């Protein structure tokens, strides 16, 4: 693995270039602000009805309607929700300059054919490996976030230079840019979201909480045991790795982890993980994502509502309540 950092990157590639950020969510906001602070000519493209226009302007960003922003830009970064990329690209394609660059922070749209770009466009991927809030805070602290970068196999050399310069401008070159592909980034990210960090870990926390409560433990204590120590675990792993984390905890905790971990995460779990990866690669999740958007997100709305009404959330609210 070759880690590319600021000193390896030609930042002048973006000199005189105008970058349009389409979308102003978690990544759009952070990337636009980091680009601005890096001296890049950046414009945020938003719909006429967007409530984010006033927010972006308050932060000192130039704002235009999507069509105008795209037409004025040398580089267009699609940072709207993945599921609308196909419709969005078809709408902006006539406004894209000949030979412009089109960038993504997730490989899904290219890997699963949501977007089929014109042949004259330079396509690239810069995918920070963390949320936009962290990308922004790290940048402001003079640090950076590791990112993956990619261009299609048949890409012109210019696309590679733009990808790396863009990664540098949003601060990721400070930590390092790792080469990947659109397929690898999309498949690994979608797998993680479902089977590990964002899907499985919260469910494991809920299951542990419910088991303790069913066993007679007070909800607040169950919450502290099962959820409250998660940040400690994450911090130790970030600082020392998994092996180093095990060495840093007490003998009691280490033995408990050794005896209990693989009883829970057994071969059955690994089999189901392989199933998830296979479904991701077959495009089943991409299809489900588009179906969810077309139906106005019924499953997501129900899941959000149900999550707010669980006992574990009640325990969280009680523990996090400010004192009188």
TrEMBL record:
Class of the enzyme per the UniProt entry, highest EC level: oxidoreductase
A GO cellular-component term linked to this record: cytosol
The keyword Transport belongs to this UniProt entry's keyword annotation: no
Requisite cofactors: Mg(2+)
Superkingdom of the source species: Bacteria
Gene3D superfamilies named in the record: 6.10.240.10, NAD(P)-binding Rossmann-like Domain (3.40.50.720)
Domain KARI C-terminal knotted intervals: 181-324
SUPFAM superfamilies (alphabetical): 6-phosphogluconate dehydrogenase C-terminal domain-like, NAD(P)-binding Rossmann-fold domains
UniProt-annotated binding residues for substrate: 250
Protein's UniProt name: Ketol-acid reductoisomerase
Entry keywords, A to Z: Amino-acid biosynthesis, Branched-chain amino acid biosynthesis, Isomerase, Magnesium, Metal-binding, Oxidoreductase
Signal sequence bounds: none
């Amino acid at each position: 693995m070759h880690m590319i950092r600021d000193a390896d990157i030609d930042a002048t590639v973006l000199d005189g270039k105008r970058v349009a950020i389409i979308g102003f969510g978690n990544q759009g906001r952070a990337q636009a602000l980091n680009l601005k602070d890096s001296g890049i000519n950046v414009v945020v493209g938003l719909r006429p009805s967007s409530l984010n226009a006033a927010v972006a302007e308050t932060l000192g960003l130039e704002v235009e309607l999507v069509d105008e922003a795209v037409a004025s830009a040398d580089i267009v970064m699609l940072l709207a929700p993945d599921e609308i990329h196909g419709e969005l690209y078809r709408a902006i394609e006539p406004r894209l300059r000949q030979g412009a660059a089109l960038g993504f922070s997730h490989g899904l749209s290219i890997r699963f054919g949501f977007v089929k770009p014109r042949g004259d466009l330079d396509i690239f991927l810069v995918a920070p490996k963390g949320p936009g809030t962290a990308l922004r805070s790290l940048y402001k602290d003079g640090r950076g976030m590791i990112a993956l970068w990619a261009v299609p196999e048949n890409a012109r050399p210019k696309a590679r230079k733009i990808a790396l310069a863009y990664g540098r401008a949003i601060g990721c070159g400070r930590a390092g840019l790792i080469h990947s592909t659109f397929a690898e980034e999309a498949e690994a990210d979608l797998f993680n979201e479902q089977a590990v960090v964002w899907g499985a870990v919260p469910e494991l926390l809920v299951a542990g909480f419910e088991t303790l409560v069913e066993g007679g433990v007070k909800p607040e204590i169950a919450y502290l045991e099962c959820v409250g120590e998660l940040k400690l675990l994450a911090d130790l792993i970030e600082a020392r790795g998994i092996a180093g984390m095990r060495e840093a905890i007490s003998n009691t905790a280490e033995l408990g982890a050794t005896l209990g971990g693989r009883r829970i995460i057994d071969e059955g779990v690994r089999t189901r993980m392989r199933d998830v990866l296979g479904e991701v690669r077959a495009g089943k999740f991409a299809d489900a994502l588009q179906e969810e958007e077309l139906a106005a997100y019924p499953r997501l709305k129900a899941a959000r509502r149900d999550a707010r009404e669980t006992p574990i959330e009640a325990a969280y609210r009680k523990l996090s309540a400010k004192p009188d």
